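Bench notes, bay 3.
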Amino acid sequence: MFKFSNGVRLLGVALIAGLGACKVPDMALREQTRTVPNKYRFTDDTLDLARMQFQEYFADPYLASLIDTALVKNQELNITNQEILIARNEIRARRGEYLPTVSPAVSIGVDRVPRYTPKGAVEEGVEIRKENEIPNPIPDFFVGAVASWEVDIWRKLRNAKDAAVNRYLASVEGRNFVVTNIVGEIAAEYYELLALDNQLDFINANIALQTRALEVVRIQKEAARLTELAVKRFEAQLLNTQSLQYDVRQRLVETENRINFLTGRYPTPIPRDPQGFNSVDATTVVGGIPSRLLANRADIRQAEYQLKAANLDVAVARARYYPNVGLSAVLGYQAFNPAVLFSTPQSILARLAGDLVAPLVNRNGIIAGFNASNAQQVQAVTQYEQTVLNAYLEVANQFSNVDNLDQKFQLKQQQVAALDRSVEISNDLFRSARADYSEVLFTQREALEARIELNETKLAQLEARVSVYRALGGGWQQ
């Protein structure tokens, strides 16, 4: 039969009496705001674009292949995968804290009993004591099991485990958010690569055009119809246009290497469709319902899980005001002579003890921890609300950007068409001596600048299309 000692009983009574005078603070709970506007300003579409696979949204097979490679080899993503494993093991550790701990134990010791102590005097006075029957010093041999268990009556340990689960889920959503960003970054860099290819093509076309113009000017100079000044002006413009191609080539190298970095590999040529830039439709963008952001955006769900973990942290901190109830037990064989160590029942040792411990005097650490947990919970609520607001504004900004870029692109197309026609007209007039050579120079320069701006506008349209997909939370649902 196992009994608690009188000291344990008195301690329990004292602690329970002291708890009556302890005031446990209330938790400063706040519910997160989950409301968003019913629709976006620039679209009323109900299609959930974020649910589309990136292979479907980005129809270019070269781009899809690059994204597939990045989802395997990207270093940032692989680092995030390890953070998920760390969080998963935290759950395992927390789960083990509220389960009993049982450990096998073997001990060997020697205990010499002093003569002039109560125990020593009693042993010396025992008449049946024979020489060497109870040696002094007394050896001590033990083989058995030791168990301990903190009884989680306040759910402190289980709430800590649940908080770890929510942090694990938050880490999974963090990985999904990284995937969304990687998909968007690779798509944006790939479209920039196509835009640079296109820009290099029409720079080379302008070089060919200006080369022919320079030949015409030289012929007219030999015929005394123009001066050396005109030749040098045309020659200078040709040299300026030729220099532009090297800037574009450098940007091509840097863009390819940014894609290589995202795909976790050393410099490698990026395969792509040379005509892909002009064939991509940059205007087809739909939005869906804003409330679906709460389900599609991985960073919103990550903030929500972090908020749930913060709520549980407050409950854990509050439970520290209550007493800890613990049980400990020992069961095994103990003897002073190894020859009789396993004698049953003479050598059997059994012990069961209960502990009741609560802070009474110095509780500053518990108070500080509770206040910090409360502040972190309020912070998590604010971060969640900020994440939702930021997500909605990102989508709204990109829809506005898509609409404005569409209008700008149409005007730029008209400008380029007008300047291309003006180049033809100026060349015809120049050949018939009805236009000055400077008009030809200015017209060619304006036409090249306008075509570069048209190319950049088309690139901005494609980047906006990528940004809409990323802002809506697409790309991670594979």
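Next record in the batch:
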Amino acid sequence: TATYLACARIGAVINPLMPIFREHELRFMLGFAETKLFIVPRRFRNFDHESMAKGLQKELPELRHVVVVEGEGADSFEALLSGPEWEKEPDANAILANRPNGDDITQLIYTSGTTGRPKGVMHSFNTLLSSVIPFAERMKITGDDIVFMPSPLAHLTGFGYGLVMPVLMHAHAVLLDIWQPDKALDIIRAEHVTFTMASTPFLSDLTREVAKTGKAVPTLQRFICGGAPIPSALVMESQKILKAKIISLWGMSENGAVTTTLMEDDDERAINTDGKPLPGAELKVVDADGATLPYGAEGRLMVRTCSNFGGYLKSPHLNGMDEEGWFDTGDLARMDERGYIRITGRSKDVIIRGGENIPVIEVEELLYKMPAIQYAAVIGYPDERLGERVCAVVVLKPGQSLTLSDIVTYLKNQKITMQYIPERLEIMDAMPTTPSGKIQKFKLREQLKEMA
């Protein structure tokens, strides 16, 4: 929090990154953003982040500084940023003179999708706060709340509603760096947590932990759940066991929280919908030609909101926004007469595993470099806990063989994030394709269901 507030005060842009990322992802992300300063932990989860960061620094000419938390020597966070009384330096006023305004970019956050490389989503102070403030008001957040945030701060969920929101609302915040249901339960009980927000697997795990241990969470009033529609059985079970209000949410890195159910809504709305727009947001469901569809019809979900991002870094051609400010979300949805939406699918090729977007094309490009593979497709398949898992479907070159272990070993050697590596392999004689040769992934998904 202190690091972000310092960046905001002097006009620096913060780019939070996932600690699961390794050289493959970071080389691109740091280089693409022309990052000047990179703050890392010395070690985290038995991985040497310091050595990795300093190795990358040799490859990235723009990366001038690597600052190490709990490091040793002159490049440690403690020596450079938290120890010196910079405000007493002669140039202190010059540092503070670069005060940004509300439309300046304050945050860059990467999101994976359908275009291969991750896209850098740019948010200004105004776009970020115009989602956070209405959300906090709708959820009735006050200075008396204790906010528990288990979602990573490199996701807009964690950053916007676990870091920024508590500061704005003068609420206390408790962060969890590694998700462990038993530890989360102990923290909620010890800290008297009143509010938390995370994707469906977190809700499922916490509910099971409370049921298993018998440890109640009497202070927990609100669990806001997004990332994927919440299974109805889970909502009913969680309401019964946690005795907290389960709120359904839909949003994106590009615009933050856009829809939620209401505190006063019946439970069925969290089961059957993803909520209604926050103040300042408009939604419409359109057909392939862009014509607005009637209530109940499925189509492409478009959003126009004051929290819409400032565009993708160095990639304005991907912004997906028309002249009237409508942003194509890539989701399919239907809307009811009350203005509540239900996400029904995706028009774009995205896998969301445990709330984490998988960069499908990037993984496929790496698979195509394997000598045994003729054709490759990465698709999602349903999973009760994570929503989706990752499957590699391949056609082999004549005379070749391949195992899932081969793929895992290869991708690990490419320094790719573990969470992106396929957990299932299906070998086929041929891929279903269009007349032009494009792989028909919807048919692959249907075939996977039949194989299950």
